[in-house]
Amino acid sequence: MPGRSGVDLCPLRRSTRYIEPQLLLDRVVLHNALFPEAGLEIIGMGMDLDEGRDPCVLSLIVRQRFLRGTAPTDAEILQYMVSRGYVPDGKRPGKFYTPNRRIVVDDVHDENVIKLPSGLLVCFDNDIRFNTKEVSKVGPVDKLEKQRGA
């Protein structure tokens, strides 16, 4: 995203894989708790039609501080996440899991993690969720569509 260091950006958080708005809100709360250096502030909500399908998809409009830096290496990302207590999934690169906290942090790669000039790594656009049956391998929307025969 274009921007200057210190300027707020307003990306969307879409609920494409979530039916319940609470699960989308959980994602923002988890992000802020685990990665406060790139905190999200909810400034609005909206509904989008997901490619014309029903039901509508909830979107959160969030504000996040723009940070300038460089892309970290895969090894730096792995070391950073392990140092924070996460265990690599082992099946998918960029997916980490902490069994005792029952939290999954996914989509952790060099386009969603930035290395600041100080050397600090910052995660800013990851898929963070509680590891529950309702949001496991296949999201509830996908399960609902399979039941309908879509």
Task: Produce a short descriptive summary.
By secondary structure, the chain is α+β, with helices and mostly antiparallel strands. Helices cover 22% and strands 32% of the residues.
- How far apart are the first and last residues' alpha carbons, in Å? 35 Å
Task: Name the average pLDDT.
Answer: 77
Return the string of H and E elements: EEHEEHEEEEEEH
Which structural category do the helix and sheet elements fall into?
alpha+beta
Percentage of helical residues? 10-25%
Rough shape? globular
Task: Determine the oligomeric state from the structure.
Answer: single chain
Please indicate the count of domains: 1
Instruction: Please summarize the sheet with the most strands.
Output: 4 strands, antiparallel
Number of helices: 3
* Beta-strand content estimate: 25-35%
What ranges have pLDDT less than 50 throughout 5 or more consecutive residues? Answer: 1-5, 137-150
Radius of gyration: 16 Å
3D structure, described in words:
With 150 residues, the chain is of the alpha+beta class. It has one domain. The protein has 3 helices and 10 strands. The strands form 3 sheets. Strands 1, 2, 3 and 4 form a 4-stranded antiparallel sheet that branches. The protein has a 4-stranded antiparallel sheet with strand order 5-6-7-10. Strands 8-9 form a two-stranded antiparallel sheet. A hairpin with a 7-residue loop joins strand 5 (87-88) and strand 6 (96-98).
